[in-house]
Design brief:
Layout (H helix, E strand, L loop, with lengths): L2 E5 L2 E2 L13 H13 L6 E4 L3 H9 L8 H12 L10 E3 L3 H16 L4 E10 L5 E3 L13 E12 L21 H8 L4 E3 L1 E2 L16 E2 L1 H15 L4 E7 H7 L8 E2 L2 E2 L1 E5 L7 H10 L4 H18 L9 H13 L7 H13 L8 H7 L18
Parallel strand pairs: 1-11, 2-3, 3-4, 11-14
Antiparallel strand pairs: 5-6, 5-7, 7-8, 9-10, 12-13
Helix pairs in contact: 1-9, 4-6, 5-7, 10-12
Length: 383
Amino acid sequence: MNVLYINGPVQNGPFTIAERPGKVSGIRAAEALNALLGAGPVPHLWNTVTLAGDLRHRGAPDRDTVGRQEREDRAIAAKYAPGAAPTSGVLTDTTPVVAALALEMTERLLREGILAVVPTAVHVCARCGHMTGAVAHACRRCGHQGSRLHTRRLLVWDRAPGTQVLAHDDFHAHRARLPGHLLTIAQNVPERLILSRTRDHGISLAPFGLDGLVLDPRAGVHIAVLAAADRHSASQPVMTVTENAAANVAAYGALFRRHNGTRLRYALHGHIPYDDTATLQRICEVHRVSPALRELFLTWFLPLCSLHIRAGITTAQLPALLKFWCRAHLARPDIPGSDVLAELRRRVAAGDMRWVMDVRTLSRAIPEYPVTHGSAKEPEGAS
């Protein structure tokens, strides 16, 4: 199996990893799983095509001297602690290789008649002209309440009635863990999906005669994963993503999950209560957990655990999870059996995460220190 785990691009907001470690749970989970598979590090993926990013840039005092792309690059670099940049670098949804792939895929879909550029009636802000979409609502760019109908040429996907935008085999998971509710949510999207947006930053659709419009970022995040997979010659990339994010982007990425024999699937993970630092500190003190063991628990075990507890890890579950983790760590063998490791890799490659809650199997998977490639510091004394 040519499986490679890649994080769903993280929105490049005003935070650092140290401040908001939960934002990089998907990065940490992908790193841990790839290490178990024996794969090398993959780039960290970031989503920069956001309206919030447009607004930050427009309101910045140095907007005339710092370009939008440079601002995004600086913000991403500042996410990491000094000297802790990912060894494999970062990839954004506007990186040239991603943009080139997006235009190639879009051109093919237009040529095949699956996508079309057609006059479409949409609501735009009566003040600034920002496209608010098929439904009238307050402008998220300038805050104006009024909108007007406007017909303009847009990139659209008109689906035939009953066409699936998400199926069971789009998820990389054990068959008993398939998320039926997400399939229902995905099917409730309109039959016409608009795949072009008004943004100051993004993959320009000008080559298709759509000046001033960019590819919908929900499609772009999928293409970024495909581009990262191509860099590593992986034909089965798996995007680590929360259920909420998958519900939001899956329909818009439906046409962008396959390319030249590569097939993207989703691995769902839940929320980790990293923000409850008081509870984490208290339970680690109660169990006399060393700094190194605590770091492994936070940056390695909990992200893997979140792939099994997809509804989200609660604060109330943390004491039991830490106790379980300590038991597994004590049970670590000096040299794990090759047959055990082979079976573990088979399960990881198949998307079966039930092994995380099996003490014997977990104990054989634990590394000496977190394989984080920039998403966390190595504990003191690690080499």
